[in-house]
Each structure stands twice: as structure tokens, then as C-alpha cells.
Specification:
The chain is an alpha/beta fold. Helices cover 47% and strands 16% of the residues. The protein folds into three domains: 3-88, no CATH class; 92-155; 164-271, Nucleotidyltransferase, domain 5 (2-Layer Sandwich). The strands form two sheets. Strands 6-5-4-7-8 form a five-stranded mixed sheet, with helices on one face. Strand 7, helix 9 and strand 8 form a beta-alpha-beta unit. Helix 8 crosses helix 9. The longest helix is centred in the middle third of the chain and has 24 residues, at 139-162. It is elongated and about 90 Å long. It comes from Fusarium oxysporum f. sp. lycopersici (strain 4287 / CBS 123668 / FGSC 9935 / NRRL 34936). InterPro entries: ZnF_BED_domain_contain. It is found in: Nucleus.
């Protein structure tokens, strides 16, 4: 039996079929819990009744409390059966649903959680309990939200970075999973954490001081709003490989000084 058919059958079981008083009128049904009867032509009216039926809701609360005390976790199908009778009292608008989905997706992305997080039976049951009218986002929905959320984070970080008087630019050279030589750049604020900024795939290019300057020059222009004259930088090499980092840390200031020779720019200091 299809899930929608099973859900409808669950609702109809809560009512007694009283039949028709004549062939021109709709069937009437009586609630097994409060004994109220009404006419209905589809499952929608009975669902609305259960959502407002005080005796039915009290029974559901009592059952949930008993299950919680016993540590029982219903199956997803059982949770859905309960959910469809509660939607009427917790209806949410489409805009509200989209807002919840965005916040849920943002939490998944920012926390580095798998996009399939809400496909877990326990997570879905949890959200059914606290918000019956809302459906958690699927991995496809989270994927669609990712670009907008990334841009939101990017704008927030960029605003914090560009409003700071001092910056630490941190370099970390390594090989990625494809064996490509890459350089990760992070920017740290004096009173805050280091933000990942960008990754460069340097290919076969040597990691000399001059090449480092070429890599970061455009980023420095962007972070400073195109005005390098009013900014000073501490350049710091992440000490993953001591010998390499020490050599590069000595060479980078000289390369930067050469690049800025005609500009009123304080000579940057290096930290080994």
C-alpha cells in the first residue's frame, strides 16, 4: 500500500462511517473519540477534525509521554501517521517553511555535516515532534541553498576583514588529494579567528618568494580596497615544514619590498 493510502487509512480508522441519509447527500462520519459527526467527501475534513479534537490530542500526548518514559522510538511511518493529524494546528506558510529550510541548510553547511543529515529516521522523527507542519530539507535542497549561503558568509567575512586596521595573512602550502601543489590563504584579525580565504592551484610553479607575491598581490588589493598605501601587513608562514617555511619567511619581505619600492609602504616584518 502506498504511503499516502496508508496515511488516509489511519485517519479513517478514527471515525465511524454513518452512511448517507439519502443518495443526494454526502456521507457522514462520527469521531470515535469525541463522538462528533460531520459530512465529508475526502480525508481532508477528518484530518482537520483530528487536529482540533481535544480528546484525540490528549490521547496522543499521553501515548507520547508513555513512549518517552519507556525510551521507545516509533518508526518513521508511525511518526508520519501522528504528524498528519497534527498539521492543522501547526500550519506554517511557504515563506516560513523556506526560511526554516535555509537556516537548517546553513547549520549543516557551517557545521560540516553531511547533506543527508535530515534523512536520518531519528532526525525526521525529532522534527515531526517539534514542528509537525515542517519538512526538513533534502540533500538536493541543501545543495541548492549552498551558493546563497556561501555568498552570505563571504560578504560577512569580507566586511569584517576590510574594517580591520591590521591583518595577518597566513599561507599553508600542501598537496591536495589529486597530487596538485596548492597554497591555502587565510586571513586573521587581531581580535578574532583566522578565516579561510582562498586556495591557489600552483601546478608545477615553484614556491619562491616572488611567486608568492604574485599569488597574493591581487588578494591584498581586494582586501585593502585597492589602497595598499594605508595598510601594513605581517606575513606569517604556517610552519608545517620548518626548513621550507624559514627560508620563505626570510625571502617574502624582500620580494614585497621590491614590489612596493616606489610606494610609501612600511617594510613588512616576518615571523618564523
Amino acid at each position: 500500500m502506498a504511503p499516502t493510502q496508508a496515511n488516509a487509512a489511519f485517519v479513517w480508522r478514527q471515525f465511524i462511517d454513518l452512511g448517507r441519509s439519502n443518495s443526494k447527500k454526502s456521507k457522514r462520519y462520527r469521531c470515535r473519540h469525541c463522538q462528533k459527526d460531520f459530512a465529508a467527501t475526502s480525508v481532508g475534513r477528518p484530518k482537520e477534525h483530528l487536529a482540533a479534537c481535544e480528546k484525540w490530542q490528549a490521547k496522543q500526548r499521553q501515548e507520547r509521554q508513555t513512549q518517552d518514559n519507556a525510551g521507545y522510538l516509533p518508526s518513521y511511518s508511525e511518526a508520519i501517521q501522528k504528524k498528519i493529524t497534527e498539521v492543522g494546528i501547526q500550519h506554517i506558510s511557504q515563506d516560513e517553511s523556506h526560511s526554516y529550510a535555509y537556516d537548517a541548510a546553513a547549520a549543516v553547511i557551517a557545521g560540516g555535516r553531511p547533506f543527508s543529515l535530515f534523512e536520518s529516521r531519528r532526525w525526521r522523527y525529532f522534527f515531526t515532534r517539534i514542528k509537525p507542519g515542517w519538512k526538513p530539507p533534502s540533500r538536493a535542497a541543501i545543495t541548492r541553498i549552498l551558493p546563497d549561503f556561501y555568498q552570505e558568509l563571504y560578504d560577512e567575512v569580507f566586511k569584517r576583514i576590510t574594517s580591520s586596521e591590521w591583518l595577518n595573512i597566513i599561507f599553508d602550502a600542501s598537496d591536495n588529494v589529486s597530487g596538485h601543489r596548492i597554497v591555502n590563504i587565510s586571513v586573521q584579525l587581531p581580535d578574532g579567528p583566522a578565516f579561510y580565504w582562498k586556495t591557489f592551484d600552483t601546478g608545477d610553479e615553484q614556491h619562491t618568494a616572488e611567486n608568492w607575491v604574485k599569488l597574493i598581490w591581487g588578494e591584498m588589493q581586494q582586501l585593502c580596497g585597492g589602497d595598499l598605501l594605508q595598510n601594513q601587513f605581517y606575513l606569517y608562514r604556517y610552519r608545517k615544514h620548518d626548513a621550507l617555511c624559514t627560508r620563505l619567511a626570510r625571502e617574502i619581505p624582500r620580494a614585497l619590498t621590491y614590489q612596493l619600492l616606489s610606494m610609501r609602504f612600511s617594510r613588512p616584518s616576518a615571523s618564523n
